[in-house]
Amino acid sequence: MDMEKIKTIIKEFSTNRNWEEFHNPKNLSMALSVEASELVEIFQWLTLEQAQNLSSDKKEHAKQEIADIAIYLIRMCMKLDINLEEAIFEKMKLNEKKYPLVDEKGNKIEYGKKQ
Amino acid sequence: MDMEKIKTIIKEFSTNRNWEEFHNPKNLSMALSVEASELVEIFQWLTLEQAQNLSSDKKEHAKQEIADIAIYLIRMCMKLDINLEEAIFEKMKLNEKKYPLVDEKGNKIEYGKKQ
Amino acid sequence: MDMEKIKTIIKEFSTNRNWEEFHNPKNLSMALSVEASELVEIFQWLTLEQAQNLSSDKKEHAKQEIADIAIYLIRMCMKLDINLEEAIFEKMKLNEKKYPLVDEKGNKIEYGKKQ
Amino acid sequence: MDMEKIKTIIKEFSTNRNWEEFHNPKNLSMALSVEASELVEIFQWLTLEQAQNLSSDKKEHAKQEIADIAIYLIRMCMKLDINLEEAIFEKMKLNEKKYPLVDEKGNKIEYGKKQ
């Protein structure tokens, strides 16, 4: 994913509209969670089976909401000077420790069970 | 950002733990919004000024929450067969139309005002 | 529900701790959505069937999260000078219009279909 | 607040539309968090000062979103057989213990600092 190109497009879009002042990290965290809820809204009344078999309309809608979340997430990284790729690699390493494959007795860990 | 590498790491992590069955798109939308709220939680009682000047502890915390959001977002893209980079470029083009620089009378658009 | 008693308890709790200054409506909206996500978290990996048959531990946990949401909701009403009971009655009347029992052709309305 | 009357109205509204099957606790937790985000959306780009001085339009909008949250919250209590008033009183008692007025050294507790 060409992150530099994406960041340039997002930055220009925002600067051209004089929206920089609104993009405070507090406000961006709110906007991000609002977009996350717009994705939740697509799935809220669906069964698990229906959620796995979205119509093409609903899939296109989900794609747009996912993009909105990504855009605010990248905006947030720009404001907090965070390298997203590095953050992901570091977090996956933490997750490997937090959710080891087996517990101290050698038993397989249950879903979501933290060490 | 090396998306293929990230997807491989996320996929292996999940497969090794037999977590694939839980990663239904409905469930993932919920998990994503929960992580988005954990980012909101960092900022909820801060002033706008404090939010722009996070302590290094809070910044590290924010970095981890941002990574969690990205991980579930990429997981969702894998499950719905969505190319995230393409989704972002398409959405930014839609945003250019939705929020033009000037309205039909040639006036500069107010913040967040849609055409 | 004895709303006056609840409001008095919430108000005193907050005043005694000098927390009034933090309870700006913007901050409260964030706190409320964070609590809503803590309720979502309980259900995120459950099937629909499991969600209808919570263990007593999970039910007690849900009860506490529901209370947290209610407390911030009432706090918000206090700050915005909104009568919650009146707001509910008014909204249910709007919903009756928005989701009529039959559409203009006399057909039963599908789930969530707005007029 | 006349909770019995509210519950009757909500129940009838839902039964008349055959919506009961959709009101699984998992789905309701999602709908509740979506409504909470619609309240967040009103405040996301406002300063703390602006949030305290809403226009009458925005206040009316907030009132409707607050009602939506309350309606789903009460719906959830009905599905999980939870007495909301009791839940609030119990949680406020827990909060009194969790956030005591002074810490073990007799110092006043900072905002949000848990014992």
What features would you describe in this structure?
Chain A has about 120 residues and is mainly α. Chain A has a domain at about 5-80: Orthogonal Bundle (Helix Hairpins), CATH 1.10.287. Helix content of chain A is about 65%, strand content about 0%. Chain A has helices at about 5-15, 25-45, 50, 55-80, 85-100. In chain A, helix 2 packs antiparallel against helix 4 (about 55-80). The longest helix of chain A has 25 residues, at about 55-80. The mean pLDDT of chain A is about 95. The interface between B and D is small, with 8 and 8 residues. Chains A, B, C, D: One of its GO terms (molecular function) is nucleoside triphosphate diphosphatase activity. Chains A, B, C, D: This is Nucleotide pyrophosphohydrolase.
Jot down its keywords:
mainly alpha, Nucleotide pyrophosphohydrolase (chains A, B, C, D), homotetramer, 115 residues
Largest interface: A-B, 65 and 65 residues
Morphology of chain A: extended
Just give the CATH class of one domain in chain A: Mainly Alpha
| Distance N to C terminus of chain A | 33 Å
Low-confidence segments of chain A, given as residue ranges, are none
Number of strands of chain A: 0
Q: What's the number of helices of chain A?
A: 5
Q: SSE order of chain A in H/E notation? A: HHHHH
Structural class of chain A: mainly alpha
CATH superfamily caption of one domain in chain A: MazG-like
Kindly report the CATH topology of one domain in chain A: Helix Hairpins
What is the share of helical residues of chain A? 55-70%
Estimate the mean pLDDT confidence of chain A. 93
Quaternary: homotetramer
Q: Radius of gyration of chain A, Cα only, in angstroms? A: 18 Å
The major sheet of chain A is characterized as: none
Question: DSSP strand (E) fraction of chain A?
Answer: under 5%
Give the CATH architecture of one domain in chain A.
Answer: Orthogonal Bundle
